[in-house]
Each structure stands twice: as C-alpha cells, then as structure tokens.
Amino acid sequence: MRLIPILLLMMLAGCSATPQSTISDEKRMEITENYQGLQENYRERLQKNPKDHEASVKLSQVYFRAGDVEAASYYIDQIPDEACSVQDGCWLTRANIAYSNEDYENAKYFIDYSLAVGKDAFQVKNLYGIILSIEGEYKLAKQYFFEARLGFQDEDAIKNNLAMTEMMEGKYQEAAERLMPLYKKRSSDPTIKANLIVSLMRSNQESVVKQMLLQEMDEEKALRVFVQLKDDLNRLQEPTLLPSGESFTSEVLSQPSMTIEEV
Questions:
Q1: CB neighbours (10 Å) of residue 86?
Q2: In the beta sheet, which residues pair with residue 6?
Q3: What φ, ψ does residue 33 adopt, rounded to 5°?
Q4: Which of 61, 119, 221, 242 is the least buried, fewest Cβ under 10 Å from its Cβ?
Q5: Which CATH superfamily is domain 7-259 in?
Q6: How far is it, in rounded angstroms, from Cα 227 to Cα 220?
Q7: Which candidate, 2, 64, 35, 61, places its Cα nearest to that of 190?
C-alpha cells in the first residue's frame, strides 16, 4: 500500500459457515481494515489446506498492508514459483515486498515475471515506473506510468506519480500544474498536498501556498508554518523522499506520496 510523502511536510500532514457469508465477511474486514480478522481467516484456511495458495497470497498481502514485512515475506515464500504464476497478486506481492526493502533489482525481476505470465500488468507497470524514477530513469518511468494509467484502479495515483517524477527532474512548474486539479478534488489527501506545496514553493508561487495554509488555520499559525517550510526547503538541495520513495503512490491514494497498488 504506498504513497510517498515529502519528509519535511509530514508535520502537515470471524468466519461464517457458508462460502457466501465468508466472502461477505472478508469484504467487510477489508473495508474496515480488520487485519487481525483477515489474518485469522486466511490462517484457518491454510490449516485446513496447506496448499491453498490463494489464502497464502492474501495472508501475505494482509501482513504487508499491516506493516509486517517479515510475515508477508514468510507466507509468500511458501508458494512455489509455478503456483505463484497462476495466482493473481502473487508476483506483484513479491515485488512490493522487495520494493519496500529497497531491493529494486529483485523487485524488477518479480515485475518481469508477473508481466511474462500476464498477471497484474497495470499494477506492476506502475511499480516499475516508481523504481525507475528513483533510479533516475525519468523518461522510461513516465512511459510505464502512462501504460499503467490505462487500467490502474485510481487514475489520480498515476497523476501523482507523474508529478513526483517531474519534481525529481526539477520541473516544479509542470508538477504543480498537474497536482493542482488533484488538490482541488482531494484537498485532504496528505500526499497530494505535500507534493503540491513543494512544487509551488520551488516554482516561486509562495502566495498560493500561503492561501492554502490560510484555508486550514488562522493567520498567525499559517505564517509560522510557512516560515518553517521555507526554511526547511532552503536547507535542502533536492526534494527529500522517505525510504523506498514514499512520495509515490503504489496503491489507491489513501496513504502518504508515489502510489503502488496491491491486489
């Protein structure tokens, strides 16, 4: 699950008996982010059938969303490669885990496998774009983002990632123009707001930033925050990303900067 916020802006910032009800319970727990309930559900399935590879993939994904990368790695590693190739989300989950560990070479290897077997093409292309941006391959990264845009769940996530890449290129004016419509639509999203403010300040549009702050706080506090932001930016030569590029979005825009998408 991941958006990539700018570090200096963080301050702003039970199973049923029937298959029918089991599906309903899983969906309910996903919506409410009941990770413990989902973990218990999938572990119970694995206890009944250790070769339930779908349950292994989903269990790994739940642990990953909950931030337990070690457990996510353990369960996804139990799946043989041949079985992984027929399970939706399996190679994508392996790629997401490698990406979160900043193991970009293995992440790209898993992405290539996912594309080769025709699984999760749009999600892995988005992730590939994020990795390429981090590695400075901006032109190729944008190509992957545009390809991912055709089928990605949240088009705004791709727009954020394109803007983040433009910021990394030093094209702050272009990034601000891309992000402003997203901000007007989703002003409470911390990733969009963080990326937009940095883009505006680095493209000499400080008055716009002041107006944004005044919409959320009184004048005295807005001035203090603005001065602090300006001081922080002046100390930085380049945009600062959290580890693993967390101003990008790998999933739907609901968490902090680039966006990856899980299944």
A1: 11
A2: 241
A3: 55, 40
A4: 221
A5: Tetratricopeptide repeat domain (1.25.40.10)
A6: 11
A7: 2
User: What end-to-end distance do the CA atoms of the chain give, in Å?
Assistant: 9
Q: What's the confidence (pLDDT) of residue 27?
A: 80
Among candidate residues 67, 64, 65, 66, the one with its CA nearest the CA of residue 77? 64
**Given its phi and psi angles, is residue 33 left (phi above 0), alpha (psi -120 to 50 degrees) or beta?**
left
Q: How far apart are CA 15 and CA 24, in angstroms?
A: 10
Q: In 3-state terms, what secondary structure has residue 198?
A: helix
Alpha helices in 7-116 (DSSP H): 19-31, 35-48, 53-65, 69-77, 81-84, 90-100, 104-116
Residues in the chain predicted with pLDDT less than 70, given as ranges, are 1-24, 236-263
DSSP H or E stretch at residue 3: none
Token pair in block for residue 167: 């910021």
Q: Is 103 helix (H, G, I), strand (E, B) or coil?
A: coil
Phi and psi for 132 in degrees, rounded to 5?
A: -65, -35
Q: What is the per-residue pLDDT for 33?
A: 79
One-letter amino acid of 162: L
Residues 181, 209: Cα–Cα separation, whole Å: 15
- Whole-structure pTM over 0.85, yes or no? no
Whole-angstrom CA distances from 253 to 33, 150, 179 are 15, 17, 13
List, in order, residues 6 or more apart from 224 with CB less than 8 Å away: none
Is the separation of the CB atoms in 115 and 124 below 8 Å? Answer: yes
Q: 9: which DSSP letter?
A: G
